[in-house]
Amino acid sequence: MSLFSKLFKLFLAVVLMPLIPMVLLLAYYQVHLKNNILETHANLAQIVSSSMNQHIEDLTWRLSFAQNITSTLTAHKNPTRQLREALGANPDFLILAVLDSSGKELYRAGDTQILKQLPPINLSGDASLPELAKDRRLSVSSFDVMDGRPISEFIYPLSNGDFLYGIMSFFGLLSRIQEQRIGQTGRIYIVDQNGSVYANDYQYKPAFDAEALKNAFSSKSRLIKKLNTPQETYVGAFAPTPILGAYATVLQLKSEAYRSIYYTNIIIALFLLSIATLAYFGALTFAERLGEPIGALSQAAKEVSAGNFDEKIDEEIGWGEFKHLIASFNKMTADLKDYQVLQLQAQVSEMKEQVFRAVAHDLRAPLLGLQGYLYILQSGKVSKDEEKQYLELMSQAAKNLSSLLEDVLDVSRVQAGMMMPKKESVALPEIVKNVTDTLAPAAQEKGLTLTADIAVDRLPADPKLLQRVIMNLVSNAIKFTDKGFVRVRAWQDEKGYYLSVADSGIGISEHDLKGLFQKYHQVHTDRQGYGLGLFISRQIMQAHGGTLDVTSKPGEGSVFTLSIPKEQK
Fold first, then answer.
1. What is the widest separation between alpha-carbon atoms in the chain?
2. DSSP assignment of 91-113, as one string?
3. Which residues pair with 454 in a beta bridge?
4. CA-CA-CA-CA torsion sign (227, 232, 238, 241)
5. Pick from 91, 427, 525, 550: CA 20 to 30 A from residue 392's CA?
6. Can you tell me the distance from the alpha carbon of 518 to that of 355, in angstroms, rounded to the nearest whole number?
7. Which tops the pLDDT comparison, 17 or 2?
8. Which residues are CB-contacts of 336 (< 8 A; sequence separation ≥ 6)?
9. Res. 527: pLDDT tops 50
10. Which pTM value belongs to this model?
């Protein structure tokens, strides 16, 4: 993750973190506000229930005519005239009847059409009649609908032991109640215990789910938080009425009931969006202002740690203390560069002197040998056999000189960037066989076991350069191994090709591993060599886009591993 990203996220988190408890508080407030709205509906439903209760209580004094009926019955006369007069005085009474003490109808009066539909009343099986006669109280039955009118039956005990029975219509009362509105869509409904909604011909009656209403009535809460119809969703509340099985229910479209909350949500959402937008751009500006100088300092520090002291930071990107810090950093890198130049000059001088001494020493021996052999041959005092032997020694000395000069030239080519491999499909088993066949006598002379396990048929490489690397690794392994084995192994995977040269030789310490692939670096100066082979080998592998690495422990041998990546298709 970049420094800019870290600063941006940090600032954004600091600004936006306080918004989280605010959002949670607002969410709680909205739930509380919705419950308050539903509580208002519940209070309205309770008012309607109380109004119906008052209507029922008023029925008691409205039945004062029952005394006249009792007197008529006591005189063994027909009370039908009094029943009709009572019906005229109470338009909401549909029928009135007198029942004997057992509950059987004696007399009746009322709406002719209803009387035709209604069979003689017989409540002789009703166990509540004796209780009513004993308590002398009015009983109102459950809610029902007859001929489209909401009705309820009532029974009132008379003082002579008979009962006054009536059917009362609530049409007028309910029409007045249902004319009430809550907003544009909120209405009051009378619903029976099965969830069926009563509505007159002039009242809008949505397709409420009767089962859902029935379940709502059985819950402990009076609030209806969700009631679905095929088109809309309603909310509201209910209250039981004094009429058995009837509920006063207030229902309103959810969208209208919570409209003020929705508007508040929109305002809050816009407010939060504005804060988030300001926080985003504030964090962006902050991260840019703070991240640019810090990032520049960090990148420059990496360059300096990698040895590049030419890196300079533009002081104009800094502000405040950063500008002074950048100026100090630039001065420090300039001082370090001057020190590095002096140090490199001293190291180069020392290295040149060491190289020249080593090369002069290595060149002096074969040159002196050549001069000596030439002097002997020129003297003419040697036999044929001695002449042949001297010529072979001169040839070997010339080869050593040629090899040393070739290594020095290769180093020059590497530094000039002129060592470019010419890749082709190379048969790796053949190259390894050429190397092992060439070096087998040297391994046998030291009693070493030289083996090869090659699981790669072909790979893309420069055959001459690759064979030179393998030859160098195997010859070094033989040179620094006094007993045991030298093992060459090759394999491949989906990423690349790999070849390792392992030996059971003297190994390399952790300290010496650090400079192993540098020019003119020799771990064991008592062994023949110029310290150029591994440097050139690594450069060859890097020119192939690959690597050359080593793992080693003193006394346990070494493993050199080269890799060449596969070409991506």
1. 184
2. TTEEEEEEE-TTSBEEEEEE-HH
3. 490
4. negative
5. 525
6. 13
7. 17
8. 304, 309
9. no
10. 0.44
